Amino acid sequence: MKLVFVIILSVLCFQNPTISNVALEDFIFSEQELPRGCKLKPILSSDKLPCGIQSNPFISSDSDFLVCFMRMMHLGSTLVPDIEKGLFSVYEDTSEIGIFGLETSSPEVAKQIKKDMLANNPNDPNGKIFLSENILIYLWQDQARNQSFNEIEQLIKTKLD
Predict the structure, then answer these.
(1) How many Cβ atoms from other residues are within 10 Å of residue 12's Cβ?
(2) What architecture (CATH level 2) is domain 20-160?
């Protein structure tokens, strides 16, 4: 009986069921994972990127970056203290395809951000939001969906499963 109690207590203490099994870094796709014809967009030294973004992909937990990044996503900065990391990555195909990602302190914060995003742009034909516990991924593109967008969408779904 003591062994059963110890096992149950261990499971409760050492597993946090509210935190996703994936991390934001899992959504930085290698060239081998990307669809044929799709590649990471090169960033030139002359490019002036917002929010202190210095590379592509770019991931950071810096609070100044997160405040600017939330504004770039047309969201307020009130939830920034509850955001642990932000991800920016842009790919090229027939159009630009990008991933904005957030890793939050809790699933509730991620759900609130998704709700805010949907309220700010309810009929976004060129974007798709994915949510898994404390990870929020926004996949976007400049033009109507193309095959690479659909394939990256499947990559994201696979990582979240």
Answers:
(1) 10
(2) 3-Layer(aba) Sandwich (3.40)
Q: Is the CB of residue 112 less than 8 Å from the CB of residue 92?
A: no
Q: What is the pLDDT of residues 112-149, one digit of tens each?
A: 999 999 998 888 888 999 999 999 999 999 876 678 99
First to last CA, the chain: 35
To the nearest whole number, what is the mean pLDDT of the chain?
85
Q: Residue 35: what residue type?
A: P
b/e sequence 62-77, b meaning 16+ C-beta within 10 Å? eeebbbbbbeebebee
Q: What's at 40, amino acid-wise?
A: L
pLDDT at 39: 94
- CA 151, distance to chain mean position in Å, is 16
| Domain ranges across the chain | 20-160
Which residues contact residue 136 at a Cβ distance below 8 angstroms, ignoring those fewer than 6 apart?
Answer: 101, 102, 104, 110, 113, 114, 129, 130
For the stretch 88-115, pLDDT in tens is: 999 998 889 999 999 999 999 999 999 9
